[in-house]
Specification:
Blueprint lengths: L6 E6 L5 E6 L5 H12 L7 E7 L2 E4 L20 H5 L4 E7 L12 H17 L6 H16 L23 H7 L1 H13 L6 H12 L9
Parallel strand pairs: 1-5
Antiparallel strand pairs: 1-2, 3-4, 3-5
Length: 218
Amino acid sequence: MSAKLERTVCVLLPNKKQLDIRVGPKSTGQDVFSRVAELLGIKELYFFGLTVLKDNEHIFLDLEEKLTKYFPKDWRQDSGKASLRRPFPLLLFLKVQYYVENGRLFCERRARHLYYSDLRERVLRSECRQQEEVYFQLAGYALQADLGDHSLQREGLEVTPYFHPKDYFPPWIIAKRGVDYLLCHGPKVHQELCGMSPRDSILSFIRDSCQLEDVPVT
């Protein structure tokens, strides 16, 4: 393939990392997907797909189709006026396409963690306001998975914040309860999980996140 005909597609991962992949004018979604799996060293991407952002909505690619179906007609051109008209790079997103409650279906730790990372983002956007207790439990699992055991400070001592509520609670809970409340009560839920391994914390997060009806939806 001529280097002049190649373009770079940026694939954003659920864990906020990115991969830059060179593609040609005849490349398909499957070509990109296979390259993502190769670069990540993950075989178990069965539950994932690639999306493109259209009108602020994620649309899953038909992996058998050429990328030209989803990108502007001038996407193959790296220079000239076409490049000047294109303000953003070519972006694809690796997203969970099929949801499961049992994280043990993932044998590969990295695949399980990508799945967990995707769910984390969906929980932060979730709006199930009648299930507030579920969000607190999920925050506890996430804190245990990310940070391990946490010991509460003795009563009377000033509590030192060790996490940012926006990373563990949806905006509507932060607005309702306030940052100080979450910094006080979040650690209590976290402390109750002392001794739980990161793996079991992630498995519990995957299981309980499916209680929120707007999370396991594509």
